[in-house]
Amino acid sequence: MKVLKFGGTSVGSPERMKGLEELIGTVNGRKIIVLSAVAGTTNTLVDIAQNCLRGDSLKAIRICNDLKEQYDQFVADLYTKPESLKLANELLNDRFSLIQKLLEGSFSPEQEKIILAQGEILSTTLFFYYLKEQGEQVAILPALEFMKTDQEGEPIISFIEEKLGNLLDAHKDIDLFITQGYICQDYQRKVSNLRRGGSDYSASLIGAAIKAEEVQIWTDIDGMHNNDPRVVSNTRPIAHLSFNEAAELAYFGAKILHPQSVFPAQKYNVPVRLLNTMNPQAPGTLISKEGREKGVIKAVAAKDGISAIHIHSSRMLMAYGFLRKIFEVFEKYKTPIDMITTSEVAVSLSIDEVTFLDKIVEELQQFGAVDVDQDQTIVCVVGDFGANTHGYAARVLDSVKHLPLRMISYGGSDYNVSILLDTEHKVEALRSLHNRLF
Questions:
Q1: Of all residues in the chain, what percent carry a pLDDT higher than 70?
Q2: 220 is an annotated ligand-binding site residue
Q3: Is 186 known to sit in a ligand binding site?
Q4: Which residues form the Aspartate/glutamate/uridylate kinase domain (predicted)?
C-alpha cells in the first residue's frame, strides 16, 4: 500500500480537485490519500480564532461568513449531480454552524483547535463526495479515530497502527482511502493537531504504521532542489537523498518538507518520494536509507530568523559542568539550540525560538558576559563530509571567504557543514556556494 499526501494547493480549487482524481488513478495498487485543507482555509480559520481570542467575535463571525460564501461557490462549481450538491451543502451548513456556535460566549484554545480541524474535514469530505459522484469505490478514514498523541504531544505509533489497521480491515474490498492530515486527538481524546510538519507528518506516521511501500509527498515543485530557486539561478532537483541528508536540508530551510516528517519513515525504513502535482512525469526526489553518495556535495539550504548568543567566562577554563549549566537554562525555557561552538573560555550558540530570549539572557549572565546578535541566517551545506573525505569543508569555506562569518559548525555530523552569518549576506552566500560547489 502507498500513502499519497497532497497539500492545500492541490485541492485549492474545484479544477485542481477534479484533476487530483486523474492523478491518483495513475498510481497502482491500494493507497491512502492524505489531504491538507483547501489553500488559504487554515490561515482564515486561524484568523477567526485569533479575533475571537482577542474578544472581537463580531469580526470573527464576519470572516467566517465570508469563508462560507467561498465554499458555497466551491461546491457549486465542483459537482454536477443534485444529490452530491445536496450532501456537500449539508456538510457546509453543519461545519460552519459548529464554528459559529464555538464563537459564541467564552472562547478557549481547545475551541480554537476544533475550529482549525474543520479545514481538513471539509477538504477530505468534499473530495470523497466528488469521487463517489465519479463512481469510485472509496472510503474515508477519520484521522480523529486513529491519530493520537501522548502527554508530550508525541504521536503514539502503536495506537495509530492498531486503530488504522482495524479501519482498513473493515474495508477489505476497498483500494482507495482518504484521510485528514494535520489533525489528531490528544491523550485526553480532545481534538488537537500535530503542529510540526502538519500533513507531511501525518503521511509519514501513517506510512510507518502500515509499513507502506512508499510515502509520496506531492507539492508544486519537482522535488527538493540543490539550492533555493527563488534567489539562485540554475538549481536542479536532487534525485536521491538519505534520510539523514533530507532531515538536515529540511531543518535548515528546504521548505518542501518538514524535518519532523522524515523521522517516522526513517525509523520504519519507508521510502519517501517528493513529487510535483503540476508535473507528475518529473521523477522528483527519492528519500531512503541508501541515499548517501560518497564524495558528493548534495545541496545548500538556509534558515532565517536566527539569534546568536555568545557567553564569555574565565570560569570555563579547566572546569567541568559549565556546559551542563548553560544547557539547563535552555531546557528550562524549552528552547532548542541549532548550532554550538566552544573555546576554552567562551560558548557561542544559535536559536530560532526567541519567545524567552530576554529571560534566557538574564539567567546566562550569572555565568559570564553575554552578547546577542539577531537577524542571523544559518547556511547549511549537505553531502558527504565523513572522516575519510578530503577538501570538501575547505571548498565550502573558500566559497564564502569574502563574507564575515559569525560561526562555523563542522564535525557534529557526517552530513553537513553549517555557517552562521548576517541575514543581509544570505543571498550572496547561497549564490557563491552554488557557483563554486555545483
A1: 97
A2: yes
A3: no
A4: 2-276
